[in-house]
TrEMBL record:
GO terms for molecular function: phosphomannomutase activity. Residues 8-130, 160-265, 273-383 form the Alpha-D-phosphohexomutase alpha/beta/alpha domain. The keyword Isomerase applies. It comes from the Bacteria. Its EC number is 5.4.2.8. Transmembrane segments: none annotated. This is Phosphomannomutase. Belongs to the phosphohexose mutase family. PANTHER family: PHOSPHOMANNOMUTASE (PTHR43771:SF1). Its cofactor is Mg(2+). SUPFAM superfamilies: Phosphoglucomutase, C-terminal domain, Phosphoglucomutase, first 3 domains. It comes from Isoptericola halotolerans. Residues 437-470 form the Alpha-D-phosphohexomutase C-terminal domain. The lineage of its organism: Bacteria, Bacillati, Actinomycetota, Actinomycetes, Micrococcales. InterPro entries: A-D-PHexomutase_a/b/a-I (IPR005844), A-D-PHexomutase_a/b/a-I/II/III (IPR016055), A-D-PHexomutase_a/b/a-II (IPR005845), A-D-PHexomutase_a/b/a-III (IPR005846), A-D-PHexomutase_C (IPR005843), A-D-PHexomutase_C_sf (IPR036900), Alpha-D-phosphohexomutase_SF (IPR005841).
Length: 478
C-alpha cells in the first residue's frame, strides 16, 4: 500500500525527486486536489506556478494532467515566487498550487496548495484528504475521469503582481537609497527587478539596486537559499559594506521570506521588522478610524507587544507556524502578522505572507527619514535575544520529562515567574523586579529536537538563562 506520509506533511508536500516525488505522484496529487478540495468547494479552475528548480516543469505537467482529468481547468503562470502564486490565487479567486521546496537542496521539490483567495490547505483543512485519495489512486483505485477534460491556459501575471505591491506601499518619493539584494539564485531574481526595478515596465524608483546571485539556478551554486542561517548572509553583509549601501535584502528560494541587513552589515532581527511594519500598518488603520489588530507568534521579541500594545491596537499572540498565523489573521481580520522566521502576513494580501511587501515597508520607513537603518532598527531592538538553539535528543528520549525538569527547576527558583503552555513551555520573569527574562522551550514537529529561545533585558541575563536552561536540557539522567 502506498504511503505518502513521508512527503505530505502538516502544511505542504516536500520530497526528493524522483524517488519520493515523481511525475506519477504529482499526477495523483493533482487528481486528489481537484477532487477533494477544488470541486468540493465549487471551484472550476486551479492556478499553477513553479520555482526555478529543474524538476519543476515536468512535475507541473504531470499535476496539470491530473487536475484536467477531473474536468477542472488549469491556469499556468509559469516561473513565480510563492507570494506570486498567492497573488494569482487572490486576483483570480481560484485555488492554487505552487511547486517549490523553498530553501531545500536541489534534489528536493514540493508543493504548496491553497484554496481560492490564497486560503491555506493544511493537514486539518484538506491536505489529509488529498493524501489519502492520492494514495488510493497510486494503488489503482482511481477516480473516474470526467466526460470532458479541463482546459489549460497560460498567463503572465508578473507585471500585475509588481503593480499591486507598489500600490500598497508607495516608495516613489523616498530619498535615494542604494540596496544590495541577495536572491540566492532563487525567485527573487525574477521578482526584484519587476517590483524594485523596471523589469515589468513600471516607472523607475529612487533605488539603486545592486544584484547578488540573481541568476535563477535551482542547484544554488553560491550558497543555500535560507537566510535564516547566518552563514548564508555573509556575502550580502560584505557586499553592503563594500558598496556603501543603505541596506541589504536577502530572500529565500521561493522568495516568500525577506531578511534585512543594515548599512554596517548587521542583521536586523525579524522581530524588529515585525514591530516596524506593524506600527506602520497600525497607524494606517487608525488614520482610517479603525482599531487595528496585529498578530505575532509567541517567540517574537518582547519589543513587539511593548511597541504595539497600546490601547489603540489589539495584539493576538499565536503558536509558531504559518497555519496558526494565517488562521488568526482571518479570524481577527488582522491588518498584519509577523513571525521570528521572517514570514510577514498582510490583510491587503489576502492574509497571506509576502516578503516583498515587507521589504517595501522597510524601504519606505528608511527613505522617509534621514537616519541610517542601524539607528532606526535600534529603536525596535531594545533587548538581547539568543536566537533559536536546537538540542538533538537521543533515541527514546522522554521529551516531557526533559521539559518538566526545566519547569520544576525554574518554578522553584522563581516562584513569581509566569508559566504558560500555548506552544511548548514559556516561562517569563518580566513584570516584577530584575532580572527580566523569558524563554520558550518546545519540541520540533518534524525532528527529534528541542528548540530554545531566550530573551532578556540585557545580554548578561540572557546568557545566564540560556546556559542554565541548556544545562538542564542536556543533563544526563541519573
Amino acid at each position: 500500500m502506498t504511503d505518502l506520509s513521508s512527503i505530505i506533511k502538516a502544511y505542504d508536500v516536500r520530497g526528493v525527486v524522483p524517488d519520493q516525488l515523481s511525475p506519477s505522484v504529482a499526477r495523483a496529487i493533482g487528481v486528489a486536489f481537484a477532487t477533494a478540495v477544488v470541486r468540493a468547494d465549487g471551484a472550476t479552475r486551479v492556478v499553477v506556478g513553479h520555482d526555478m528548480r529543474d524538476s519543476g516543469p515536468a512535475l507541473v505537467e504531470a499535476f496539470t494532467e491530473g487536475v484536467t482529468a477531473t474536468g477542472v481547468d488549469v491556469v499556468r503562470i509559469g516561473l513565480c515566487s510563492t507570494d506570486g502564486l498567492y497573488f494569482a490565487s487572490g486576483r483570480l479567486d481560484a485555488p492554487g498550487a505552487m511547486f517549490t521546496a523553498s530553501h531545500n537542496p536541489a534534489r528536493y521539490n514540493g508543493l504548496k496548495l491553497c484554496r481560492s483567495g490564497a486560503r491555506p490547505v493544511g493537514q486539518d483543512t484538506g491536505l489529509a484528504q488529498v493524501r489519502e485519495l492520492a494514495e488510493q489512486i497510486l494503488d489503482g483505485d482511481g477516480v473516474a475521469a470526467a466526460d470532458a477534460p479541463g482546459r489549460v491556459s497560460d498567463v503572465d501575471l508578473l507585471g500585475e503582481y509588481a503593480a499591486f505591491l507598489r500600490d500598497l506601499v508607495d516608495v516613489s518619493d523616498v530619498r535615494p537609497l542604494k540596496v544590495v539584494v541577495d536572491a540566492g539564485n532563487g525567485m527573487a531574481g525574477l521578482t526584484v527587478p519587476a517590483v524594485l526595478g523596471t523589469g515589468a515596465g513600471l516607472p523607475a524608483l529612487p533605488l539603486d539596486v545592486v544584484p547578488l546571485y540573481f541568476e535563477l539556478d535551482g542547484t544554488f551554486p553560491n550558497h543555500e537559499a535560507n537566510p535564516l542561517e547566518p552563514a548564508n548572509l555573509v556575502d550580502l553583509q560584505a557586499a553592503v559594506v563594500a558598496h556603501e549601501a543603505d541596506l541589504g535584502l536577502a530572500f529565500d528560494g521561493d522568495a516568500d521570506r525577506c531578511f534585512v541587513v543594515d548599512e554596517r552589515g548587521g542583521a536586523v532581527s525579524p522581530s524588529a521588522i515585525t514591530a516596524l511594519v506593524g506600527m506602520r500598518e497600525a497607524a494606517r488603520e487608525q488614520a482610517a478610524g479603525r482599531t487595528p489588530t496585529i498578530i505575532h507568534n509567541l517567540i517574537t521579541s518582547r519589543a513587539v507587544p511593548d511597541l504595539l500594545g497600546s490601547g489603540a491596537t489589539r495584539l493576538v499572540r499565536t503558536r509558531v507556524g504559518h497555519s496558526f498565523i494565517k488562521q488568526s489573521m482571518a479570524e481577527h481580520d488582522a491588518v498584519f502578522g509577523g513571525e521570528h522566521s521572517a514570514h510577514y502576513y498582510f490583510r491587503d494580501f489576502w492574509f497571506a505572507d509576502t516578503g516583498m511587501l515587507a521589504a517595501l515597508h522597510v524601504l519606505a520607513a528608511l527613505g522617509e527619514q534621514a537616519h541610517p537603518l542601524s539607528a532606526l532598527a535600534e529603536m525596535y531592538t531594545p533587548y538581547s535575544a539568543s536566537g533559536e538553539i536546537n538540542t538533538a535528543l537521543g533515541p527514546g528520549a522522554d521529551v516531557t520529562a526533559v521539559v518538566d525538569r526545566v519547569r520544576d527547576a525554574y518554578v522553584r527558583a522563581y516562584p513569581d515567574a509566569v508559566v504558560d503552555s500555548l506552544d511548548g513551555m514559556t516561562i517569563a520573569h518580566w513584570d516584577g523586579m530584575h532580572p527580566q527574562w523569558w524563554f520558550n522551550l518546545r519540541a520540533s514537529n518534524t525532528e527529534p529536537l528541542l528548540r530554545l529561545n531566550v530573551e532578556a533585558a540585557d545580554e548578561d541575563i540572557m546568557i545566564k538563562v540560556r546556559d542554565d536552561v541548556l544545562s538542564l536540557v542536556r543533563e544526563e539522567k541519573a
